[in-house]
Amino acid sequence: MKKIATFVMMIIIALVCTFTFVACSNADATDDSDVATLVMNKRYINKNYVSKDTEKQIFYVFHANGTGEYTYHYDHDYVDASFESHTHNHYIIRFNYTYVDDDKSAVVCFYDSIERLDGDDGTYKATTWTQLVTVSKNVLVTVETSYIFWINEDYLKTLPHFGEK
Question: Which SS3 state, helix, strand or coil, does residue 7 take?
């Protein structure tokens, strides 16, 4: 009798473990909360420019058709006794992008064209512009000389004190 009871208990435990494993596996398969997802047609604003007026922000916008825009604004005037430098870059780079991997955690953006905005001095001419962008719905990350964080405009609303002056 003890052997039968032990056998039945082992079967019940095995079935519970199997159902638990299957349930957890299916939950992971259908739960998209951890999947990297670009939010389409929303600005991802450079963290250093979130408190600036919209027409002075630097940001990315992605579209579902595999295109996007990178809007850039930069003004710098430097004058001293022996040197003078003026840089005024205001442009939109239109790009095509593709996902790097199956989990869609990164995209590579490739230059397509440039639109000069008011005040641009025409000096920027990088037709080989490319960018590797790590993706999430709330934040993008690019790397140049350091990490640059780009905050989705909707997510920024949940960070009321970020970028306060």
Answer: helix
